[in-house]
């Protein structure tokens, strides 16, 4: 007779919640951005602000959800995790994402080992190497793809920076939770509010507010698509933020990245089915290898 293990059930539930939220977020973002103006920083800023509003709304209806008080001492301690989060988001929009995903696992293991002063097991290293190989197979040149799909040197460079930021962010989350009373909700509030404050001046300097004003004066622009797109992605962005923090809290940064690798396989499969993305022989081999390494 199998022994009921509530801790394993909790881990399975949190990982499933994270993967579902991440998949929905990716496809909602893709659908909205395809029909919205090119205002990436403003779009991200609205998502962050909506997440903060949802946290306050949740606290108003549920006594167990506590919004932290503004404490500048705590804010100073959380500057690294918020800063790395913003850097990762920016580079993630500029890079070839499959390269970034492939490098996240080994870099997370390296950063986690340095922080904890521990050595990962051979099985963890073997699994990570297998998953990384799978991602590299997916971005290898293929005759099925046009020449414009071949990654540039700059996109590869941004991919390295993006994956390094994500690796540091995952480890910093684990180390930042004690500053927030070990509460993922409090850390989610600090992360979203802090990121919104940091990204606001860049949205202005990038000229996106003035671009939005010009678009608002145009009769051809359908502002309802942008508004509802921001609200929908803001809601799912909020769920993804909480799910990611919970995943790292109940498991570890390395385990969380393995979950992310498995999610990327599902994402590719759903992309082929829903958006009719191209499935080359390289990408099919990539999926098989990533699944093997993750399992």
UniProtKB/TrEMBL annotation:
It comes from Gymnopilus dilepis. The chain crosses the membrane at residues 12-33, 39-62, 99-116, 123-143, 155-173, 185-205, 225-248. Keywords: Membrane, Transmembrane, Transmembrane helix. This is Sugar phosphate transporter domain-containing protein. It comes from the Eukaryota.
